[in-house]
Amino acid sequence: MTDAQHIGIVACSAEGAALCYTTICKEGARFFGEHAHPEVSMHTLSLANYNACIYENDWPAVAELMLTSAHKLASMGADFLICPDNTIHQAFQYFRDRSPLPWIHIADVVADDAVARGFSRLGLTGTKWLVESTVYPDKLTERDLNYVRPAPDEIEFINKLIMGEFVKGKFEPAAVQYFQSVINRMKGKGCDAVILGCTEIPLLMDDNNSPLPTLDSTRLLARAALRRAASSYLT
After folding, report:
1. Which end of the chain is less packed: N or C, by CB atoms within 10 Å?
2. How far apart are CA 27 and CA 37, in angstroms?
């Protein structure tokens, strides 16, 4: 495994980061053999630290937190970085040129998968900070993809579910039913797939219970990291 690149994970909320980490470890066998995966390091500052900045819409401060993790992961020997948290990608512009290592951007990975699977109009779900931002719209429009945001009341309620339940590992049947209703409405607006744009949402929704095909941002990012880590190993 010495030729595989070392993956650095800049974590924010625990549930999504854990899913990303376990996906890398479990699916590494596809590239490296049974029980094998590339070296993985993860650094996690307190979610409370991030939330203190996010609730003030202070994205430069979020960037500094992410950079703290980036530098620590670089010192651990990571070759590149990923962040299994869609929301804090809003801070990307404030640290991109100062990062000690290259990144895989989660929205790039999701948008590329949508194109590869032939989708054209995507529903967007996630925290209110994410769905009201340009993180996904910028990446989608670059690829001539259309998108639909939830209605304002849906944005608020989904945000309440994410921050009040999902990040705490609480996933209730009522939340599944609510997401199904939101996704059904998006389907009625012509969407042919839905972005699970909070890294905890794939723990609640998937292709088995969603009215639309899902774009699982967490696992897609993990798989992109595996491909990059394996690129030198397989040559």
Report:
1. C
2. 8
Query: Residue-wise pLDDT tens for the chain (235 aa)?
Result: 568 999 999 999 999 999 999 999 999 999 999 999 999 999 999 999 999 999 999 999 999 999 999 999 999 999 999 999 999 999 999 999 999 999 999 999 999 999 999 999 999 999 999 999 999 999 999 999 999 999 999 999 999 999 999 999 999 999 999 999 999 999 999 999 999 999 999 999 999 999 999 999 999 999 999 999 998 665 5
| DSSP class per residue in 170-186 | ---HHHHHHHHHHHHHH
* Co-location of 49 and 143 in the same domain: no
First to last CA, the chain: 13
pTM of the model: 0.95
Quickly tell me which residue has 């999701």 as its tokens.
110
The answer to the question of residue 235 being in a domain is no
Domain that holds residue 201: 106-216
Alpha helices in the chain (DSSP H): 14-27, 29-32, 47-54, 59-75, 92-95, 106-116, 128-131, 135-142, 152-164, 173-188, 217-230
Domains contained in the chain, number: 2
Please give the structure tokens belonging to residue 43.
Answer: 């650094």
CA 162 from centre of chain? 14
Same domain as 202, residue 160: yes
Give the CATH number, domain containing residue 87: 3.40.50.1860
